[in-house]
Design a protein that fits this description.
Layout: E1 6-10, E2 14-20, E3 23-31, H1 35-48, E4 54-61, E5 67-71, H2 81-90, E6 96-103, H3 110-127, E7 131-135, E8 137-145, H4 149-158, E9 162-168, E10 171-179, H5 183-192, E11 197-200
Antiparallel strand pairs: 1-7, 2-3, 3-6, 4-5, 4-6, 8-10, 8-11, 9-10
Helix pairs in contact: 2-3
């Protein structure tokens, strides 16, 4: 379900393998937080598969449609990264990374063969992991006196807000991801609390 209140992603990592004429294409699908998360996952896979000839990937982050990256990692242009991204997009997913590790089997597959192999491996990896609808979050900073911590946290828990950053001294500051679908209720409840300041970030 893709609307402006929820987006689709995957819940956990999955692995699938596609074989064609001796070549092995092992696809890893990951839920992705941000670009640093991507770099760590790719580096870890390269360590795990040092003898693979290619580590091709595609990811999409965020909701505006502009934050994505594809890499053919030495395969002919357009034969790997784009077909992988196509599988993410055909399922309308975001915050997802797929890396396909290729072990060469001695036979050249040609451009159509490569496109099919990378597309199929990516599709298989996505078939074996559940898709989840996640709430679109809008970030707010909430500032309050330490004595109100319990009341503020009650609202945070009740409406499934995500705590992104928290500084608790005498005067506390929390950065929250508030589900867009519950935004009015959350803001109303927080503003009801005396001395609590809420600002959008």
């Amino acid at each position: 379900m893709t609307n402006d209140l929820y987006y689709n992603s995957i819940e956990k990592t999955s692995v699938a393998e596609f074989k064609d004429r001796g070549s092995r294409f092992i696809a890893y699908a990951y839920p992705l937080k941000d670009v640093n998360d991507f770099k760590e996952k790719l580096a870890a896979l390269k360590k795990e598969h040092p003898k693979a000839v290619h580590h091709c990937f595609a990811y999409r982050l965020g909701l505006d449609g502009n934050n994505y990256r594809v890499s053919d990692d030495g395969e002919p242009s357009g034969t790997a990264g784009k077909p992988i991204l196509g599988q993410i997009d055909s399922r309308q997913l975001t915050n997802v990374l797929i890396v396909v590790v290729r072990y060469f089997g001695g036979t050249l597959l040609g451009v159509p063969g490569l496109i099919n192999a990378y597309k199929s491996a990516a599709a298989l990896a996505l078939q074996v992991t559940p898709v989840v609808a996640r709430p679109v979050l809008i970030n707010y900073r909430v500032q309050f006196d330490y004595t109100q911590m319990n009341e503020v946290m009650k609202v945070v828990k009740q409406f499934d807000c995500a705590v992104l950053k928290q500084e608790t001294q005498l005067f506390c500051s929390i950065e929250l991801g508030v589900p867009k679908s519950r935004l009015e209720e959350v803001l109303f409840r927080l503003k009801e609390l005396r001395g609590v300041e809420v600002e959008k970030i």
